[in-house]
Amino acid sequence: MSAQAERRAAPPAKKGAEPRGPRAPLGERLAAWRDQHFYSFFSSLGRLAARPWATLLTVLVLGFAIALPLLFWLVFDNARELSGGLREAREVTLFLQPSLGPEQAESFAAELRRRDDVAAVLLRTPEQGLAEFRDLSGFGEALDALQSNPLPSVLVVTPRESGADEDPPLVAAMQADRRVDLVQYDAAWRRKLGGILHFGERVVAVVAVLLALATLLVIGNTVRMDIQARSAEISVMQMIGASNGFVRRPFLYAGFWYGLLGALLALLVVVVVELALAEPVARLVESYAHRFALHGLGAGVAAAVAGASTLLGWCGAWIATARHLAAGRPA
C-alpha cells in the first residue's frame, strides 16, 4: 500500500487534540483526592469564620429549630417511662363491705385464689390499712381519737394475663358480688393514657419532620446565597476546566458545618433547659417518694442528633449546588 493510501485510510485527527500523558498511579490520585477534601473541609470553615455575624444568625436559627423537637421528644420519652408502671399495673382492688369480718375476708380471698383467671390475691386487713394511712398521712393524733377503725378489708387481686385489651370477666363478677362494696380498676384510664401517649408520639414525629424540612431549606438557601456571592470565582474555575465536583465540594462542606454547629447549639439549649428545670423536677420526684426518675439526653441520642443534622446540612447544600450546576449557569 502506498503512503498516500495509508494517509487516506487513517482517521482524521481531532482538532486541538493533544496526546494524553501516562495516568497517575492510584496512590497519587487518592492522595490528591484526600488533599482536595481536606482543603475544602477547612477552607469552608474559614469562610464561615470570616463572616461571623451572618454565620451566627444562621446557626442560631438552626439550633432553635433542632432544639424544639428534641425537647418535645425528651418530655414525651420521660412521660412514656413514667406511665410504663401505671400501664403494667393490672391489679383489681376490692373494697369489701364493712360488715365482713376477718374470717369472712380470708374465706373470700381463698375463694378468689381458686379461680382460673386469678394469679394472686393479697388481703389487707383494716388494721394494716389504718397503720399505712397513719404513716403516709401524718394524722396520727387525729386517728388516735377515733373510737373504731372505719376502714374495710381490702383485697388486691392480680388477674392472669389474657392478651386482650378488654376488662377481665373478674371485674364484672366482683361488681355483682354483694360482699364487695367498691371495685377499683383503672383499665379505662390506662387505655386513655395509652391513646394520649400515642398521640404525643405522632405529634413529636410530625414536628420533627417539619422542622427538619425547615432546617434543610434554611441551609439550602444560605448556600445558594453564598454561591451567588461567589459567582465570578465559580465562573473562572469553570473556564479553566474545574469539574462540577470540584466546584460543589466547598459548598457541601459549608452545609456540613452549618448542620454540625446547629446541632451542637441545639444540644447546648437542651442542657441549659435541663439545668434550669433541675430544682423543680427534683422537688417533684421527691414528692412522689422517688418512685420515678427523669432522665436527660444520652450520648447515643446526642450523637444521632448531630449526625442527622449534619446529613441535613449536606443534603441542603447538595440540592442548592445541583440546581445551579444543572441549570448550566455558575450561580
Automatic annotation (TrEMBL):
Protein location: Cell inner membrane
In the record, the note on similarity to other proteins reads: Belongs to the ABC-4 integral membrane protein family. FtsX subfamily.
Species source reads: Dokdonella fugitiva
What does the function comment of this entry state? Part of the ABC transporter FtsEX involved in cellular division.
Determine the domain of life of the protein's source. Answer: Bacteria
Sorted alphabetically, the keyword list is: Cell cycle, Cell division, Cell inner membrane, Cell membrane, Membrane, Transmembrane, Transmembrane helix
User: Would the keyword Transmembrane helix turn up in this protein's UniProt record?
Assistant: yes
Topology in membrane: Multi-pass membrane protein
The chain positions of domain ABC3 transporter permease C-terminal read: 206-321
> Mainly resides where?
membrane
Residue numbers spanned by region Disordered: 1-25
Subunit comment for this entry?
A: Forms a membrane-associated complex with FtsE.
InterPro entries hit by this protein: ABC3_permease_C, FtsX, FtsX_ECD, FtsX_proteobact-type
Q: Which PANTHER family match?
A: CELL DIVISION PROTEIN FTSX
Q: Which residue numbers delimit the FtsX extracellular domain?
A: 91-181
Q: Biological process GO annotation list?
A: cell division
Record's protein name: Cell division protein FtsX
Q: Where is the composition biased (Basic and acidic residues)?
A: 1-21
Q: Name one GO cellular component term.
A: plasma membrane
- Can you tell me where the transmembrane regions are? 53-76, 203-223, 256-277, 297-320
